[in-house]
């Protein structure tokens, strides 16, 4: 009974603080302090200080601001301007033609930014006006951008995978490698859906542009190729063991500075803006992680994760049924919270449950990220929906409807990963 009372009290305080507009990180710390002060014999003050310092000074976390800075630097180069020009010549022969530039552009920029909303905004600013001008159907233009933009959460270097790795105490390098093949699989599924739609509606696809020689295609892609090579080198350095995730992040920052300088985009203003932008984003994430670490400690002292794990265990759910329940839970909660907040809020409770069920935490991390991805295109709080609404002026309901096929494709991808977990584990196992 005391655990039930404590749980209800914590949920009420959490909802009150979040509803009052308090920052997520401060809300987590506040709820943790409340729980420890009123439901345990442990003094809350020194526990909070020790826990927050310990979480903020983690060496593993160093990779996060570096990867964020790498994305900020490349964001300020000619990457977004050359995205469409560089990709368009290569996809003209495919059914659906230039709609594939949304998928491929999002896949490339996802590896740069690690952010779904940033991927959606950057690729959209370039591609949406261009595709509309060329006569592509508006619903397909918007849908093929909103769905693939969610890849920013999965394809390494991913901010949310670092957050999960720190929360679950897993190797960031192995998590990055685990996300590569599922990310490519999703990109192929998205492009496959565009091809199916194009073959079913050939009259809605504009005619192809003039064909180019291989040499001309390479020339059009000249600004894009160095960025792709940089991303590939960062991932390869982690996979081969040449560098840890943190060292690879440093390589990425140095490489992006060199590329930016070579393109003439490395001005003092851009350097300063990229540094400030990365610092602001990292401070926000670090505050959330610090609050989550204190909340994890507080809930541990109250015994809530153990009690909940024992309760779920008493239901005798099979691992498959547990995954279905957790998938629905995360899709619902993701409709109201952003991905990082969703993960740090629930990790202390969910992790003991999946470990007790014998589910690989590495596999579960990829499952969790894809589930959180689906929430990016589901109302009412789908961040990609807001970005697309601001870009196109369309209603949220319309945007959610045109993005719906990509939501179902991600659900199918989760089913595939359940039956073929090797897609997630094969690269980490061969590192």
UniProtKB/TrEMBL annotation:
Domain (TRAP C4-dicarboxylate transport system permease DctM subunit) ranges: 11-423
Main location: membrane
Localization per record: Cell inner membrane
Protein topology in the membrane: Multi-pass membrane protein
Entry keywords, A to Z: Cell inner membrane, Cell membrane, Membrane, Transmembrane, Transmembrane helix, Transport
Membrane-spanning segments: 7-36, 56-75, 141-164, 176-200, 221-242, 248-268, 280-302, 314-333, 340-357, 363-386, 398-420
Pfam family, one: DctM
Top-rank lineage group of the source organism: Bacteria
Protein family per UniProt: Belongs to the TRAP transporter large permease family.
Subunit structure: The complex comprises the extracytoplasmic solute receptor protein and the two transmembrane proteins.
Job of this protein: Part of the tripartite ATP-independent periplasmic (TRAP) transport system.
Name used for this protein in its record: TRAP transporter large permease protein
Species this protein is from: Comamonas odontotermitis
């Amino acid at each position: 009974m005391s655990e039930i009372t404590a749980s209800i009290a914590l949920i009420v305080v959490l909802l009150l603080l979040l509803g009052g507009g308090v920052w997520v990180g401060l809300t987590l710390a506040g709820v943790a302090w409340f729980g420890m002060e009123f439901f345990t014999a442990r003094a809350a003050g020194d526990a909070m200080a020790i826990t927050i310092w310990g979480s903020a000074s983690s060496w593993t976390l160093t990779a996060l601001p570096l990867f964020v800075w790498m994305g900020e630097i490349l964001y300020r180069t000619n990457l977004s301007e050359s995205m469409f020009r560089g990709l368009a010549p290569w996809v003209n022969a495919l059914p659906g033609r230039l709609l594939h530039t949304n998928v491929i552009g999002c896949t490339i920029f996802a590896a740069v930014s690690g952010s779904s909303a940033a991927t959606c905004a950057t690729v959209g600013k370039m591609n949406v006006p261009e595709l509309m001008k060329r006569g592509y159907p508006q619903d397909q233009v918007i849908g093929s951008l909103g769905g693939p933009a969610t890849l920013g959460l999965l394809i390494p270097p991913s901010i949310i995978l670092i957050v999960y790795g720190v929360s679950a105490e897993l190797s960031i390098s192995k998590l990055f490698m685990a996300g590569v093949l599922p990310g490519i699989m999703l990109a192929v599924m998205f492009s496959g859906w565009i091809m199916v739609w194009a073959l079913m509606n050939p009259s809605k696809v504009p005619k192809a542009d003039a064909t180019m020689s291989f040499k001309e295609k390479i020339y059009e892609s000249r600004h894009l190729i160095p960025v792709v090579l940089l991303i590939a080198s960062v991932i390869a350095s982690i996979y081969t063991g040449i560098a840890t995730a943190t060292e690879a992040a440093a390589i990425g920052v140095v490489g992006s500075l060199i590329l930016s300088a070579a393109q003439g985009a490395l001005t003092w203003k851009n350097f300063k803006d990229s540094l400030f932008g990365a610092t602001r984003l990292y401070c926000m994430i670090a505050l959330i992680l610090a609050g989550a670490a204190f909340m994890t400690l507080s809930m541990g002292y109250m015994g809530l994760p153990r009690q909940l794990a024992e309760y779920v265990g008493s239901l005798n759910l099979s691992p498959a049924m547990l995954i279905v329940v957790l998938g629905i839970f995360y899709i619902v909660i993701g409709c109201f919270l952003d991905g990082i907040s969703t993960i740090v809020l629930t990790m202390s409770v969910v992790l003991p449950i999946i470990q007790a069920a014998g589910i690989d935490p590495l596999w579960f991390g990829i499952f969790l990220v894809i589930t959180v991805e689906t929430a990016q295109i589901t109302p009412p709080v789908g961040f990609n929906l807001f970005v697309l609404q601001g870009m196109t002026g369309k209603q949220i309901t319309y945007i959610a409807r045109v993005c719906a096929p990509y939501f179902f494709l991600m659900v199918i991808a989760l089913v595939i990963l359940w039956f073929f977990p090797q897609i997630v584990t094969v690269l980490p196992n061969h590192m």
